[in-house]
Fold DUF742 domain-containing protein.
Amino acid sequence: MPEPEEALWMDDAAGRLVRPYTVSNGRTRPTAEFDLLTMVMATGVKPQTYLGPDHAHVLSLCDGPMTVAEIAAHVRLPAVVTKVLLSDLVDCGAVTTRAPLRMGADPTDRELLEAVLHGLRKRL
């Protein structure tokens, strides 16, 4: 029985057999702007050129809305490499993105942080 494609590129002891920089062709900067909480979703448009197995894996995860951080965790790649792959998919129209919604509160507001801490302690 043939092994799943991902199993060919993974080793239990060593991890990924292909180094992350080779997955992104040595690129370290995405062509699109992403936050770890940026929502990504497939558009249904198929890439006109073959991008590679990692691109295909990322695209397969985008059937429903998913954050960049979740995608990176699923493909077991650093976030920056995942962002480069996603930017390739954005460039060819295969995925669309939506920036995370920013709430009106200041993320460094002491009262807000204390309320969150209180809520977390209450749950324990």
Observations:
- The mean pLDDT is 79.
- Strands lie at 10-11, 15-16, 39-42, 66-67, 95-98.
- The first strand starts at residue 10 and ends at 11.
